[in-house]
TrEMBL record:
<dbReference type="InterPro" id="IPR007374">
    <property type="entry name" value="ASCH_domain"/>
</dbReference>
<dbReference type="InterPro" id="IPR015947">
    <property type="entry name" value="PUA-like_sf"/>
</dbReference>
<dbReference type="InterPro" id="IPR009326">
    <property type="entry name" value="DUF984"/>
</dbReference>
<dbReference type="Pfam" id="PF04266">
    <property type="entry name" value="ASCH"/>
</dbReference>
<protein>
    <recommendedName>
        <fullName>ASCH domain-containing protein</fullName>
    </recommendedName>
</protein>
<feature type="domain" description="ASCH">
    <location>
        <begin position="17"/>
        <end position="134"/>
    </location>
</feature>
Length: 141
């Protein structure tokens, strides 16, 4: 398996990121991504720009990390939209793979947004669809 630096050197436009804000959540989400059940994610718009994370771009390939920083999977962004909290729909929630329904998503994401900077009924949310390009665990990690 290539090192993270080798992957970055071969993909200089790639960003690195972790799913979730705890190791348990990161592990659970990566399992859903690897199974093909999770093909979408979202994040509060406040984390992007001016010293924050790079905004996802359609066609860009980024590297999701294991909690300990090892490369987990490379994903390619296939769609990016911005919506407000109250505009989230059941189809996008289903593509995230970890929620029973919209109400379950609202409970989970409200708690996540409150832990990571605040929540409001009109919070702007980046919604990204992606596909897995490479699973580094499958390469003998």
């Amino acid at each position: 398996m290539p090192s993270l630096q080798e992957i970055i050197d071969a993909n200089p436009d790639a960003e690195t990121f972790r799913f979730g804000d705890t190791q348990v959540l990161c592990d659970e989400i990566l399992a859903l991504v690897r199974s093909g059940r999770k093909t979408a994610t979202c994040e509060a718009m406040r984390v992007y720009g001016d010293g924050g994370d790079a905004f996802p771009e359609v066609g860009r390939r980024d590297i999701a990390l294991e909690w300990d920083g090892r490369p987990a999977v490379m994903v390619e962004t296939t769609e990016v939209t911005i919506r407000r909290w109250h505009d989230m729909d059941a189809a996008f929630v289903a593509a995230q793979g970890e929620f029973r329904d919209l109400a379950h998503w609202q409970t989970g994401y409200r708690a996540y947004f409150e832990r990571t900077g605040g929540w409001s009924d009109d919070i702007e949310i980046m919604c990204e669809r992606f596909r897995v390009v490479t699973d580094y665990a499958a390469q003998g990690a």
